Amino acid sequence: MPDTRYAIAAVLVAAAVTWGLRALPFAALTPLRASRTVQYLSARMPAGVMVILVVYCLRDLPLPHARALAPLIALAVTIGLHLWRRNALLSILGGTVTHVILASTVFAP
Prior knowledge:
Elements: H1 4-29, H2 36-58, H3 69-85, H4 88-106
Helix pairs in contact: 3-4
């Protein structure tokens, strides 16, 4: 059994490493907040990520088949809700619910 001083030292070292690893990102990001590049990316990245996700999700969609209508209708609902309310959570939730309902009932295989 290790002695008490060794166990206390091990716990203190582990705590210091854990604290340091959690504090390091905040310390590294502080100078970046004033960067024009980071500000530009923070304004443009969300739309870019959404476009990439849409292309990824619809790339293998069999357009001649009727089951392709469920994701396309859900996409239209998502876009419509977002243009109407400008609320990302509502848009994503509405599109997801629409797709699940259509894919499991109307356009079920």
